[in-house]
Every structure is written in C-alpha cells, then in structure tokens.
Amino acid sequence: MDTGSISKLVSHALRHEPWLYELELDDKGWVPVEELLSASRSEKPEWSALKEPDLAAMIANSDKKRHELLDGKIRALYGHSVPNKLLKQPAEPPAVLYHGTSPETVALIRASGLQPMDRQYVHLSVDTATAEQVGRRKARFPVLLEVQAKVAAANGVAFYRGNDLVWLADQVPVQFIEFPD
Fold first, then answer.
1. How many domains is the chain built from?
2. Where in the sequence is the domain holding 53, given as residue range(s)?
3. Percent of the chain with pLDDT over 70
C-alpha cells in the first residue's frame, strides 16, 4: 500500500476536516482506529484491506511522526487547523441541507428523524455531491435526504457550522426532512 497517500488522508481527517469523514475527535484529538479505517476504506477501493498494523507501519516509517496509536485509538500529534474537538458554534443555516445515508437506515429516519447515533452531531452537507460522497461510505447507492434547515432553525432546531461544506445539528425532527419518492 502507498503509505504516503494513506498518511495524507489520515492527516487530513485528523488534523483538518474530520467531519468530512464523519469522525469526531475527543478532547485530546483521539478517534477510534476502526472509525478511521472504515472512512479510509470508503475513500479508495484499493484500501479495502487496510488494517491497524498498516497504520502502525505508516507511523513507524514516517520521518515526520505526525500520528500516534494507543489502545485502539489514533490521533494527529500536531498541525491541526481545527481545535482538538469540534466546537459547536450556533449559526443560521442555509435554507436547505442534505444528508446521505444507506437505504436500510431510511425507515429508522422516517420514524425518529435524524439522530447522531454514536456521534455527537448529525452531519449535513450543503450540496448533494458532498452528501452523496458521505452516503457512499454507508452504501454503494446512498439515499439523499433534503433537510429544510432554515424552517427547522426557525422552529428551534440548533445548527452549527462545520465548514463551508458541512453543517452539524444535535438532531433533526422528521417533519423537516424530505424523503425521495
């Protein structure tokens, strides 16, 4: 495997835009290795066999020592362009945001809205291309949901800016979600 390419993706995910990979850093910058591996495997089909020992070899062979592995977790040691933990900064969202998900999850979302599940926030995208990219991490043919964000915000749903492409919410009730036919 090309450890240089893997290192670049891991650095981007852990130092700059973890939300693009649906990762959430803890207060010291750690993320479970399995979550990072899952996101990495989704990025490139040739990384489908990527495992923790491959990350350990990448770290051991790196002259810059950017990452650290410990107890099933990984973090970047330096070079962050975001705080160690995503900060919630309430903001007025765009009129519409999108969420890419697996077909199997749609029934659950229809019943209870968008929930963060094992994460701190629901991740939403400003465009369908980004939502589809995120959704492909969950399914080969993702389902795109449209969130009426401005209406939801006017009704008390809090939104937080992640970056120019990603918005976060604590949850999104079903009445603000449009499902495909």
1. 2
2. 3-76
3. 89
Question: Measured between alpha carbons, how far is 152 from 175 in angstroms, rounded to an integer?
Answer: 9
**Residue 32: predicted pLDDT:** 97
Choose the weakest-confidence range: 79-88, 95-104, 110-119: 79-88
23 contacts 13 by C-beta, under 8 angstroms: yes
Shared-domain flag, residues 123 and 165: yes
Summarize pLDDT for 147-171 with one digit per residue, the tens: 999 999 999 999 988 767 888 899 9
63 belongs to a structural domain:
yes
- Quote the CA–CA distance of 138 and 173 in Å, as a whole number: 21
Q: Is 76 exposed, middle or buried (0-12, 13-18, 19+ CB in 10 A)?
A: buried
Side-chain half-sphere exposure of 135, counting CA atoms within 13 A: 23
Give the C-alpha separation, 8 to 131, whole Å. 22
Give the residue-averaged pLDDT of 40-67.
87
